[in-house]
Design goal:
This protein is of the alpha/beta class. It folds into two domains: 74 residues, 3-Layer(aba) Sandwich (Rossmann fold), CATH 3.40.50; 42 residues, no CATH class. The chain has seven helices and five strands; from the N terminus they run E-H-H-E-H-H-E-H-H-E-H-E. The chain has a three-stranded parallel sheet. It has a two-stranded parallel ribbon with strand order 4-5. Strand 4, helix 7 and strand 5 form a beta-alpha-beta unit.
Length: 130
């Protein structure tokens, strides 16, 4: 199994460098890969900020990665929950931070928007303003 970097994921998605995209596809076709949650986080940031993908398109990319044969994810359940919350309006980074905090009872922040969105989505752990 090989862990892959954000740039490998992005090449797979946008194929803006044909040779790198071909090599990334060949890797996924030949062996299992592991994607860390930080790579998922960075992938969203790159797709939104550099490639200006819409949220719905980014959600499709993330779900496609999660469902792809031979792809293992760090904190799979947390990543899936974060994708759900992201699709429903929460910032992906915030959603992932809350989702990986499932073993605690509270999540403190100064971000009022995060608190409001998390409450609306009944996110657990309880997100509150410090």
């Amino acid at each position: 199994m090989t862990s892959i970097d954000t740039n490998v994921v992005v090449r797979l998605v946008v194929a803006d460098d044909i040779e790198q995209a071909r090599r990334a596809q060949a890797l996924l076709a030949s062996e299992d890969v592991w994607i860390s949650r930080t790579v998922m986080l960075e992938t969203v940031w790159v797709l939104e900020s550099t490639y200006e993908l819409r949220r719905a398109d980014t959600v499709r990319v993330l779900r496609g990665l999660c469902d792809a044969a031979g792809v293992a994810l760090e904190s799979r359940q947390a990543v899936l929950k974060a994708i759900d919350w992201y699709e429903r309006g929460m910032d992906f980074a915030d959603a992932l931070h809350v989702a990986v905090s499932r073993r605690v009872t509270k999540f403190a922040t100064f971000d009022r928007t995060l608190v409001r969105r998390a409450r609306r989505l009944t996110a657990q752990p309880n997100v509150y303003e410090l």
